[in-house]
Amino acid sequence: MTIDEDVRQISPYFQVRQTTWGGRACFSNGNIPKGTTVLQVAKSTGTSISYEFRKEVCHNCFAYNNARTMKCKLNYDSVKDLIRDAHCQISSKKFLGAGLWFCSEHCKNSYLQTPNIIELIECYEILLRQFPNMLKRYDTSTEQENKLNSIPISESIIQSAWDEIENSWMPLIDNMKPTKKISQLPPISEDEYCCIRFVCESLFNLKYMDPQCMTYRTFNILQSNELSKISKFPVLLHFQKLVFQTLYILLPSHLRKMLTIPLLRHILGTEYGNAFGIWQEGEAAESREYFGYWVFPEASYFNHSCNPNVTKHRKGNSMLFKVNTDIKKGEQICIDYSGVLSLPTLERRNFLADSWFFDCACERCVLELQSVH
Ligand SMILES: [Zn+2]
Ligand SMILES: [Zn+2]
To answer: Which ligand is nearest to the CA of 365?
Structure first.
């Protein structure tokens, strides 16, 4: 897809352009001194905190306190007014806290101030209530995983899997009574649970985003890596179907209206290869914890270089992209995708190819490859 004129200008410091060698890249508009922040993004379209960190990371600012459970769990009292105003079906007796934990009252309140946030909390709460039963039935055997990973994958196999969901499974569910529908919930693992929450948040954010805003527009034209990723890990096709089926059965109507197969495939297909890791702040790269991942469409146009001129930093719930050397006008602006810059050439290049599906052709790789051969 071509880049619209106004999407080219994500930042005053650089322009996104189609390159002659394929793909898009960011080129500086002028000389940029070292230390300049060329992009700051504060609103991700979706975040996913790994299951093991679900109570240990603040869901507003991503603070972490050495594996201690966060101080504030979402309680019924803090959401009861929102529940009443939105007429949603969450009762005080059964409220589990929607799986939301915060480092402070301040962070909790700031999260709750997001317009319409109760709609998302309702989804999280419904999912949390059903999750133990779904997890109990999940088949963790390696036989099952090997079986699912041996499926041959092509564009048409992916398409027919989704056609079957749309033409056979969905009409069947549509004709069921609510209690019967619940009995059709598939078994899911902790990973799927986290992914379902990620999709819920993405649907919620997209629902209330201005379609003209830069985040929305860049999200729509993000490159999907669905085929490359599923070809490498065929089990993901099954994984995606479980995510969709769970959401289709559980989502309240306001968000279920948003849920279509093409949108789910775009959300997940663009997450592969475009998501950034959420890393612990203030720790060295080798010892910091990986909490999960998030998607910032505007920040997805940087290419990778093994000698990057821009460094990513996380600051609370935003990401900053800072120039680490003086950049000349017209130079390409690159980041490091993987945090593997210290690895030997071949190992580093294999890692990039496996995770991001490209053979790195950066200057450093070209130079180092010449000396390897
Ligand atoms: Zn916090
Ligand atoms: Zn390279």
So the answer is: 2
Same domain, 245 and 348: no
Predicted confidence band of residue 18 (pLDDT cuts 50, 70, 90): confident
Q: Does residue 150 have a pLDDT over 60?
A: yes
Q: Is residue 291 part of a domain?
A: no
129 in any annotated domain: yes
Same domain, 33 and 79: no
| C-alpha to C-alpha distances, 211 to 199, 214, 297, nearest whole angstrom | 18, 8, 14
Distance 298 CA to ligand 1 centre (A): 24
> Distance of CA 33 to CAs 2, 263, 310, 328, 336, Å?
30, 40, 11, 9, 19
Check if the beta carbon of residue 214 is closer than 8 Å to that of residue 40: no
Element (H, E) at 147: helix 142-149
Given a contact cutoff of 8 angstroms between Cβ atoms, the answer to whether 214 and 133 are in contact is no
For residue 220, report the distance from its CA to the centre of ligand 1, in Å: 30
| Shared domain check, 160 and 22 | no
Assess whether pLDDT exceeds 50 at residue 1.
no
Task: Please provide the DSSP assignment of 239-298 as one string.
Answer: HHHHHHHHHHHHS-HHHHTT--HHHHHHHHHHHTTTPEEEE-TTS-TTT--EEEEEE-GG
In a domain, 283, yes or no: no
Give the number of whichever ligand sits closest to the CA of residue 341.
Answer: 2
Distance 49 CA to ligand 1 centre (A): 14
DSSP type of residue 57: B
| pLDDT over threshold 80, residue 21 | no
Q: Which domain holds residue 341?
A: 5-43+296-372
pLDDT for position 6: 64
Q: Which residues surround ligand 1, an ion (CB under 5 A)?
A: 58, 60-61, 63, 103, 107
Query: Phi/psi at 305 (nearest 5 deg)?
Result: -140, 145
Task: Return the ligand number nearest the Cα of 361.
Answer: 2
Give CA 219 to chain center in angstroms. 12
Residue 133: inside a domain: yes
